[in-house]
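== Polypeptide entry ==
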Amino acid sequence: MTSSSKARNSTANKINIKTDNLVVASLQDTSSSKSKSSGGNIGVSGNGLDSVGINASKGEANRAMVDQQTSITGTNLNIKARDTKITGDHRCGNQNDDGNTTDKLTLKTDTLTVANIQDSDESKDSQSQHWLWRKLDHHWHEF
């Protein structure tokens, strides 16, 4: 028998869990986005046309974060498992405002495996602007 709690929150005054395999795992919320834009520009002054150019930009963002950790909370928690695996952020028991656990937690297990989840939040942006022609000293110059 296997008991699993993935990205869930279990709350009760008294919780008794007896299982062969206990898995408590937080899951990452993921998102990604891409953007592109391009355009042109024309510069005009009292002397007429002064410049012609183009511009472009692009961006990309990727995020993988545990936004809500998995938890098992109650005033009296009794957990007995042959194999226990805890992955990512997790919380067992209630905590007061000082961060101290206020409940009774008993965990009996033959093997305990704990693994971290690596959160990531990356973004990349690039922009470019190029003058095609520009009027300098009353003469047009190509770039």
Notes: The chain is about 0% helix and 75% strand. The first strand starts at residue 2 and ends at 6. The mean pLDDT is 81.
